[in-house]
């Protein structure tokens, strides 16, 4: 078993730091995920989700890991991550309220169709992948689609969505549903208040290659940003930081295809999706 040691602290975001420490301890122990699960009498899939940052699990499991690894701080890290998760929910609720009031929205998405442009089937598969099922799944899908209603109202916000070409090269498994999603994206791009642009993979990496960012222009004239990386999510309201993010966004927009060329590219991906023989 590994000796007692101080937490590494390489990651500053509590949930990511907790997951990082779990991975480090298991690798040091030389145990596989399945061996850890057997040792603590929990399904190893729970441990895997904790190590990936998808789940915090409960205190009983964390205490069992503290015993297994001979540590005395995992429960403390878990409690800090739990508090941060609660703060995240408050920040995200505040962001949702702002999004509902925004007069314009600018999005950069490196890996997924943004929620405001998702079809029901696409949203459902993403949420299922994240572990949601049953009534919780339906509520989350309905909530996500409900956000889209503002785009078709009497005074809809202006929306510009910049997508990496990687988004179009990452289809959901059901081909018919993927076709529906691409059609929805094309239909949205035809609306007068929506611009969709694609950044070709051939342009290479850029400053936002691994960062989702969403800018909201609020009625009083200020702009806020919501950013997500592989390790953290944050609501940014400080003016200087928002301006720096906006400059990065503008540089990415300069590398994107024009709206017309982007629609043509999306249409090309749609034509490449195999048709369901039953529908031909």
Task: Please give a structural write-up.
The protein has 280 residues and is an alpha/beta fold. The chain folds into two domains: 14-82, 434 Repressor (Amino-terminal Domain) (Orthogonal Bundle), CATH 1.10.260.40; 102-279, 2-Layer Sandwich (Endonuclease, Chain A), CATH 3.30.870. It is built from eleven helices and six strands. It has helices spanning 14-29, 33-40, 44-52, 59-69, 74-101, 120-129, 134-146, 165-168, 175-189, 239-255, 259-272, and strands at residues 104-109, 158-164, 194-199, 212-217, 223-228, 233-236. The protein has a six-stranded mixed beta sheet with strand order 3-2-1-4-5-6, sandwiched between helices. Helix 1 runs antiparallel to helix 5 and helix 6 packs across helix 7 (134-146). The chain starts with 13 loop residues before the first helix and ends in an 8-residue tail after the last helix. The relative contact order is 0.11.
């Amino acid at each position: 078993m590994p000796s007692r040691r101080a937490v590494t602290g390489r990651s500053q975001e509590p949930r990511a730091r907790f997951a990082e420490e779990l991975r480090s301890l298991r690798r040091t122990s030389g145990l596989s995920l399945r061996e850890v699960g057997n040792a603590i009498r929990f399904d190893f899939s729970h441990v895997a989700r904790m190590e990936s940052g998808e789940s915090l699990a409960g205190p009983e499991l964390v205490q069992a890991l503290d015993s297994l690894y001979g540590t005395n701080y995992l429960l403390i890290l878990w409690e800090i991550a739990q508090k941060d998760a609660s703060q995240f929910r408050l920040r995200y609720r505040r962001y949702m309220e702002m999004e509902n009031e925004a007069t314009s929205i600018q999005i950069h998405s490196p890996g997924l169709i943004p929620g405001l442009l998702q079809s029901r089937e696409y949203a459902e598969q993403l949420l299922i992948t994240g572990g949601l099922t049953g009534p919780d799944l339906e509520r989350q899908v309905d909530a996500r689609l409900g956000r889209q209603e503002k785009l078709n109202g009497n005074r809809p916000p202006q929306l510009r969505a910049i997508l990496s070409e990687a988004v179009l090269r990452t289809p959901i498994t059901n081909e018919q549903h993927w076709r529906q999603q691409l059609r929805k994206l094309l239909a949205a791009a035809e609306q007068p208040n929506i611009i969709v642009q694609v950044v070709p993979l051939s342009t290479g990496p850029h400053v936002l290659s691994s960062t989702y960012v969403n800018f909201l222009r609020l009625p009083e004239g200020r702009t806020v940003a919501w950013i997500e990386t592989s390790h953290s999510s944050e609501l940014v309201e400080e003016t200087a930081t928002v301006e720096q993010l906006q400059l990065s966004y503008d540089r990415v927009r300069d590398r994107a295809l024009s709206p017309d060329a982007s629609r043509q590219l999306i249409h090309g991906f749609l034509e490449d999706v195999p048709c369901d023989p039953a529908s031909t």
